[in-house]
UniProtKB/TrEMBL annotation:
The lineage of its organism: Bacteria, Pseudomonadati, Pseudomonadota, Alphaproteobacteria, Hyphomicrobiales. One of its GO terms (biological process) is alkanesulfonate catabolic process. InterPro entries: Alkanesulphonate_mOase_FMN-dep, Luciferase-like_dom, Luciferase-like_sf, SsuD_RutA_monooxygenase. Belongs to the SsuD family. It comes from the Bacteria. Keywords: Flavoprotein, FMN, Monooxygenase, Oxidoreductase. One of its GO terms (molecular function) is alkanesulfonate monooxygenase activity. This is Alkanesulfonate monooxygenase. It catalyses: an alkanesulfonate + FMNH2 + O2 = an aldehyde + FMN + sulfite + H2O + 2 H(+). Residues 11-332 form the Luciferase-like domain.
Length: 387
């Protein structure tokens, strides 16, 4: 297998579509409802294919990530679960108890994605009415309490947003402390990352923009005497040839109407106060003729989808080259997805992973039986599997 040019380790996670899945964006045609049986199919497939972990999203339209992860943990072997830690929506002490329980249940396979929220309308439905920067100040207090509790300390805290007296956990996580992942493009978000989290995430912007963003975060972390790791959230449309991949990208958005685009873009820019969401929308401005924002980076998903709105589109060789460009600026973790998520997980694993030296390793020989995939062999033949 071809190894990454810089030989740096790369984690490649996948996505569990707990808000539903489908073949066409903006259309109910060939939709898959958000059912646990389907989530289990995706999780078991990516566990077998060699993805080390999955992201479970959060929000009003999603099944709860904690409960879903608890269910999926019982049906998988190695897969790690990146679930949402929601400052402001829950208390830090209750969240610490949930953390300990799910980490023990999954035998140490829990990761936490800190989600402060970027949509005041949705946050109001959850009872959160703080302005943008104040939400990050609240999150900072939340994480200080949470970190102490899951580390086994007794907590006494008197802050602006939280007060805790003699808080403790009698049952601790299986891990010393489950890692904290976090994405925030604003100054307030980067300040929180610099002080509290382990992995700083960005949505898929052109390499130069990502480089500038993570350099700012790296410098802020250094001022706090800390180092951050960096990850990127991207969709993938990988096919054997460039033409096939771009045709698939066109099909994915072929049912979206101009009215749907207008409604979605207005919501992203007017209803939400997320700096990251604004950066996503500004990549293309809602225009179908401005969707290729850098080589192999396509913003079509972001016409109607909030959050991560860009895809790497192309042949395995070209997408691998783009990934190495992100690796060169410090990215060591990818959280990928694709529509539909079950089929695209197979395409990524079978086409792209060999280019990156990733996936399930088979060290022992395997039996190959004559069939339609090995035409010309007669009877059982033992071949050495590629590593």
């Amino acid at each position: 297998m071809t190894q990454p040019a810089n030989n740096s380790p790369l984690d490649f996670f996948w996505f569990i579509p707990t808000h539903g899945d489908g073949t066409y964006l903006g259309s109910e045609r060939q939709q898959r409802p958000p059912e646990f049986a389907y989530f289990r199919e995706v999780a078991q497939a990516v566990d077998r294919l060699g993805f080390p972990g999955v992201l479970l999203p959060t929000g009003q339209a999603c099944e709860d990530s904690w409960i879903t992860a608890a269910g999926l943990a019982a049906h998988t072997e190695r897969l790690k679960f990146l679930v949402a830690l929601r400052p402001g929506v829950t208390s830090p002490v209750f969240a610490a108890r949930q953390t300990a329980a799910l980490d023990r249940l999954s035998n140490g396979r829990l990761l936490l994605n800190v989600v402060v929220g970027g949509n005041p309308t949705e946050l109001a439905g959850d009872g959160v009415f703080l302005p943008h920067d104040e939400r990050y100040a609240q999150a900072a207090e939340f994480l200080k309490i949470w970190r102490q509790l899951v580390s086994g300390e007794t907590v006494n805290f008197d802050g602006k947003h939280y007060r805790v007296e003699n808080g403790r956990l009698d049952l601790l996580p299986a891990q010393e402390r489950p890692p904290l992942y976090f994405g925030g493009s604003s100054d307030a978000g980067q300040d929180l990352a610099a002080e509290q989290v382990d992995m700083y995430l960005t949505w898929g912007e052109p390499v130069a923009q990502v480089a500038e963003k993570i350099e700012r975060a790296r410098k802020k972390a250094a001022l706090n005497g800390r180092k951050l790791r960096f990850g990127i959230r991207l969709h993938f449309i990988v096919r054997e040839t460039e033409d096939e991949a771009w045709a698939a990208a066109d099909r994915l958005i072929s049912k979206i109407t101009d009215e749907q685009i207008e409604i979605a873009q207005a919501r992203f820019l007017k209803e939400m106060d997320s700096v990251g969401q604004r950066r996503m929308a500004e990549l293309h401005g809602g225009r179908r003729d401005k969707l290729v924002v850098s080589p192999n980076l396509w913003a079509g998903v972001g016409l109607v989808r909030g959050g991560a709105g860009t895809s790497l589109v192309g042949s395995p060789e070209n997408i691998a080259a783009r990934i190495r460009e992100y690796q060169a600026i410090g990215i060591d973790t990818i959280i990928g997805s694709g529509y539909p998520h079950l089929e695209e997980a197979y395409r990524v694993a079978e086409l792209l992973f060999p280019q990156l030296g990733l996936g399930t390793k088979r060290s022992a020989p395997r039996e190959v039986i004559a069939n339609e995939f090995s035409v010309g062999f007669h009877g059982a033949k033992r071949l050495q599997a590629s590593s």
